[in-house]
């Protein structure tokens, strides 16, 4: 097909060109800036003509944007989470929405364990102390942390990522509780995981890790009431979505020591401004939403997003579609 007849795709954010190699010869692209925090104004003029949208989790795709893109035939999100997209509005327009599950499960579970271990053993503080000259000797009672072996991990949300975390935690000798729809009995047995209600999980766990998607039901699900149920020695890890935890309540919990520490890959708001009081909490470890940030994982996410995009442009079913109802009664 002549280049000018290829469908136009808006890619909201610059990406390494090799990650987008699959798109070559299949579509024309206009690409937003590196580190785009919103839909860049330079892309606005292309909305009227765009047939595909390749976006990141930081870019809201709502009615107001969809209304300006009447020819849109596919929205492909380079993320497993898709709370940035008004899926109902896309479905109403029969636009399939793609996401990238699976390829980031291991990397996200690895970072969850890294955060959990770093918080349990106070690595940021210990590293700072060493660097700043406070390492005077092998200190028998210095930098004491919590054991994982024998401790209880509460997994809130036992989807792919929750399960991958549970497998890793089992390897560390942890006992497992979880909330979610029940796992098949053989999986429960294999993991040694017991299903309980959330309040029970919060009361019993030494570590709590969140793996639920952000939905109206999960927004703010960890607030003051829930944090007060946790043990004063407990550590909360969030690699899911920031708004699952009420930030003000978490700050209070850390300041008043209702819990021992938090380790966050995601925050609300995101990014967390540099002067935010959570950064001032020595018992709060914060990293900038990097759970899937490995070379291989990010490339595979981009490639899967390209597969979804191309399928949508070619009228095929998306390999990973979050609103398969668009294919009903067609
Ligand atoms: C990352 O947060 C993702 O949803 O892929």
Q: What is the residue-mean pLDDT, rounded to a whole number?
A: 97
List low-confidence stretches. Answer: none
Largest sheet: 7 strands, parallel
Q: Could you give the order of strands across the largest sheet?
A: 8-7-6-9-10-11-12
Question: What is the overall silhouette?
Answer: globular
Strand content: 5-15%
N-to-C order of helices and strands: EEEHEHEHHEHEHEHEHEHEEH
CATH class membership of the largest domain: Alpha Beta
| Helical run tally | 10
Structural class: alpha/beta
Helical proportion?
25-40%
Strand segment count: 12
CATH architecture of the largest domain: 3-Layer(aba) Sandwich
What integer value in Å does the Rg equal? 22 Å
Distance between the termini: 27 Å
Bound ligands? glyoxylic acid
Layout of secondary structure:
Layout: E1 8-11, E2 28-31, E3 52-55, H1 63-66, E4 74-77, H2 87-92, E5 97-98, H3 105-120, H4 123-131, E6 152-156, H5 160-171, E7 175-179, H6 185-191, E8 193-195, H7 198-204, E9 207-210, H8 224-229, E10 235-238, H9 247-255, E11 261-264, E12 284-286, H10 295-313
Parallel strand pairs: 1-2, 1-3, 3-4, 4-5, 6-7, 6-9, 7-8, 9-10, 10-11, 11-12
Helix pairs in contact: 3-5
Glyoxylic acid (GLV) is lined by residues 57, 79-81, 104, 292.
């Amino acid at each position: 097909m002549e280049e000018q007849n290829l469908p136009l795709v808006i890619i909201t954010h610059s990406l390494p060109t090799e990650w987008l190699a699959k798109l070559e010869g299949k579509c024309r692209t206009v690409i937003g800036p590196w580190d785009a925090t919103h839909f860049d104004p330079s892309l606005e003029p292309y909305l009227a003509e765009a047939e595909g949208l390749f976006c990141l989790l930081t870019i809201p795709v709502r009615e107001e944007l969809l209304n300006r893109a009447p020819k849109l035939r596919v929205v492909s999100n380079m993320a497993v989470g898709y709370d940035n997209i008004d899926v109902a509005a896309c479905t109403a327009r029969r636009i399939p929405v793609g996401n990238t599950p699976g390829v980031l499960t291991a990397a996200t579970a690895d970072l969850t364990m890294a955060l959990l271990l770093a918080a349990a053993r106070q690595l940021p503080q210990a590293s700072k102390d060493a660097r700043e000259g406070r390492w005077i000797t092998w200190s028998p009672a210095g930098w004491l942390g919590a054991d994982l072996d024998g401790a209880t991990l509460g997994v809130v949300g036992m989807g792919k990522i929750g399960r991958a975390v549970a497998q890793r935690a089992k390897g560390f000798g942890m006992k497992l509780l979880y909330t979610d729809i029940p796992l098949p009995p053989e999986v429960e047995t294999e993991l040694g995981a017991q299903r309980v209600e959330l309040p029970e999980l919060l009361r019993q766990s030494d570590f709590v890790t969140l793996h639920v998607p952000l939905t109206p039901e999960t927004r703010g699900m960890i607030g003051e009431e829930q944090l007060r149920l946790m043990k004063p020695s407990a550590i909360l890890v969030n690699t899911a979505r920031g708004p699952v935890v009420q930030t003000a309540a978490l700050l209070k919990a850390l300041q008043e020591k209702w819990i021992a520490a938090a380790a966050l890959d995601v925050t609300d708001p995101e990014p967390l401004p540099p002067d935010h009081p959570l950064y001032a909490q020595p018992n709060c470890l914060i990293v900038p939403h990097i759970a899937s940030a490995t070379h291989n994982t990010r490339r595979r996410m981009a490639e899967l997003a390209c597969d979804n995009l191309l399928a949508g442009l070619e009228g095929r079913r998306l390999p990973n579609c979050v609103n398969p109802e668009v294919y009903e009664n067609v």
